[in-house]
Amino acid sequence: MSFVYKNKLTVSDWVNYILLVIIAVICLFPFIYVLSVSFTDPDSYIPLKFYLFPENWSLAAYEYILSTASFINSLLSTTFITVVGTILNLVFTLTMAYALTKRKVPGIKFIMGCVIFTLVFSAGIVPNYLLVKELGLLNSLWALILPNLTNAWSLIVVKSFIDNLPAELQEAAIMDGCNELGVFFRIILPLSMPVIAAFTLFFAVAHWNQYFQALVYLTDSDKWTLQVLVKSLVIDSETIGAASRGAVAGDSTQPPSETIRMASIILSMLPILVVYPFLQKHFAKGVMLGSVKG
């Protein structure tokens, strides 16, 4: 005998589903509009017209924006910040979190208290700016990396994750002759791949979206991050003119400024949209395992 369970949808379920679909469509419309305008042929583009799908497809806006020196410089700056910053974030976060798990280290409670203190209180914009200035990092890409090597929330989550790992494995490794570095590289890191994957994406997205600090610390437009350049393209028509002066020689045809803006927005989002699906599955596992024990 087999039993079949039939899950009937109630009226409230239908209302919830319909509302969620409406909200999803509303959220997708701006993205669809940006994507459609960016692929619209410059000759058929009509300002202030809503494009659900381009009437005539064209890559002219993408070819133009990718040929400008300003966009290439911003792309290189953002890529450097993201790659180097993410690697250093992982190194400092994992090593310090592992050290915080060693309760026998003198002063470890005081250090942990300082970490928790920074989780509640921060110095603020002006002290951070003065610190970066005194370190000689103004107008340097390192100003976006070195002050953000780690943060209290990441340390606490990763520390909790390492605390949940079987202590017997570390003890067995020490009995086999491993020192602390050997335990870290041979035991802790291989078992910490879920939390490493999760925080790799956390750190990478944060660095890729650097905007406010780049706006404050970088005065040279050649060092702007993508987010600062896109902001300038969207609200400042003079930036598009400056970008056009950096286009490849012989390219005298400039697409409409609106298609250039939309193409730059899509290009700035594309890397994260490509990487996210591959690491998204590690989010829940990595973060939840690190949040069970405090």
UniProtKB/TrEMBL annotation:
Main location: membrane
Domain ABC transmembrane type-1: from-to ranges: 75-279
A family per Pfam: BPD_transp_1
Entry's transmembrane regions: 14-35, 75-98, 110-130, 142-162, 183-208, 260-279
Cellular compartment(s): Cell membrane
Annotated keywords: Cell membrane, Membrane, Transmembrane, Transmembrane helix, Transport
UniProt cross-references to InterPro entries, sorted A to Z: MetI-like, MetI-like_sf
Membrane topology: Multi-pass membrane protein
GO process terms (BP): transmembrane transport
Superkingdom: Bacteria
Keyword Iron in record: no
GO cellular component annotations of the record: plasma membrane
Alphabetized CDD domains for the sequence: TM_PBP2 (cd06261)
PANTHER family attached to this UniProt entry: ABC TRANSPORTER PERMEASE PROTEIN MG189-RELATED-RELATED, POLYGALACTURONAN_RHAMNOGALACTURONAN TRANSPORT SYSTEM PERMEASE PROTEIN YTCP
Family classification: Belongs to the binding-protein-dependent transport system permease family.
Protein name: ABC transporter permease
Species annotation: Gracilibacillus dipsosauri
Phylogenetic lineage: Bacteria, Bacillati, Bacillota, Bacilli, Bacillales
